[in-house]
Amino acid sequence: MVDAQPRFFIVAGEQSGDVLGAGLIRALRQRYPGARFEGVTGPLMREAGCETLADIEALSLFGISEVIGQIPRLLRLRRRLFEHVVATRPDAFIGIDAPAFNTGLEMRVRQRGIATVHYVCPTAWAWRQGRTKSIRKAVDLLLAIFPFEEAFFRRFDIPVTFVGHPLANELPLHPDSTSARRALELDTDAPLLGLLPGSRRSEVSRLGPVFIETARWLQARHPQLRFVAPMATPAVRELFEAQIAETGADLDIRLIDGRSREVMRAADVLLLASGTATLEALLAKTPMVVAYKLSAMNYAIARVFNLIKTEHVSMPNLLAQRALVPECLQQQARVSVLGPEVERLLESGPARAAQTDAFDAIHQQLACDADERAANAVAALIEARR
Predict the structure, then answer these.
(1) How far is CA 248 from CA 195, 243, 254, 260, 336, in A?
(2) For each successive 10 residues of the chain (386 residues), what is the average pLDDT?
(3) pLDDT of residue 2
């Protein structure tokens, strides 16, 4: 049997990892009240009782140029963490997301005979499938938050367990749209379109203008339609406000700082950028049209090297394994395509129901107590090694 007071070393790579790490810590502590946790943490993990060797912000990097400039510091951090793990020999090393940082560290730790777990599958199913070779060398256990990932990684002889998505347990199966509108002080009767052009300036710079032009096209045909847009950061709000002033000064678009989940619940339909927001929209049960534009250079690279391996890119379609929601990518992300797709959802009850019925089924599939299942899998791993 496992020592009553096992040690766990956890490295979370960004804020979403902090959420997963905190939930896992709480579930493991139910089994092992005297367990010790330490690692790279955010505020939620620290609140759950994890000692900090480095703050999660040390790994929260975006963009190639930013990462390249931080490589020496990241290598020093990884070396320091490795030396600490080897010296203290925890019962399990758990890397949460951040595969570029964690996979190499997991590989070296595992070579020293320490059990390794990686929580949140790297997206090798979407691009760079060759990464499965290094993943297989790096981990004793992979924890998958989406069901299709389990089948994919098993094809490459990687031990993997589907645990579900914590957000699916956190959000209600039947959201209350009216209460969300009241909380946001929005009209409870008028049809409402939510605009979510992205959480980063680069995304908003490409999608913001076409979303605004699509809103104008829709308002001309549906004068009663109202618009609301949650802004992820002050920088994103400043950019979107400038785009509205330039291309949509005649539109009344209500901007709200943050509170994207409430906006998703309040809206009748969403027009949003592909990304993690599409999963939250699915769980909010709001019909959606998804759009995305890569930069011209990145799109050319993706086409030349055939980097995208999936038929679909948005999470609702990946989870449904079919074209459940419209995906308007690159040249298809234009008013003449987006406008009619949104209009169809606004006007057609059956079109909305086709999406929301599937959203319900997916929500129930994902809501399987991820924290508990992940803790069970980790506990089984370390018990098997004793």
Answers:
(1) 13, 7, 12, 22, 17
(2) 77 88 97 96 95 83 52 87 96 93 95 97 72 93 95 94 95 95 95 95 93 97 97 94 91 95 97 93 98 69 53 90 93 95 97 98 96 97 91
(3) 45
DSSP 123: G
pLDDT of residue 128: 66
Q: What are phi and psi of 199, to 5 degrees?
A: -105, -5
Q: Output Rg (C-alpha) for the chain, integer angstroms.
A: 22
Closest CA to 271 of 202, 222, 320, 344: 344
What are the counts of helices (DSSP H) followed by strands (DSSP E) for the chain? Answer: 17, 13
Question: Among residues 121, 110, 130, which one has the least CA distance to residue 162?
Answer: 121
Distances (CA, A) of 10 to 71, 111, 366: 21, 17, 24
- For every residue of 204-237, DSSP letters joined together read HHHHHHHHHHHHHHHHHH-TT-EEEEEESSHHHH
Note whether 34 and 5 are within 8 A (CB). yes
- pLDDT at position 317, please? 95
DSSP state of 373: H
Buried b (16+ CB within 10 A) or exposed e, 331-350: eebebebbbebbbebbeeee
pTM of the model: 0.86
> SS3 for 189?
coil
Closest C-alpha to 239, from 202, 293, 196: 202
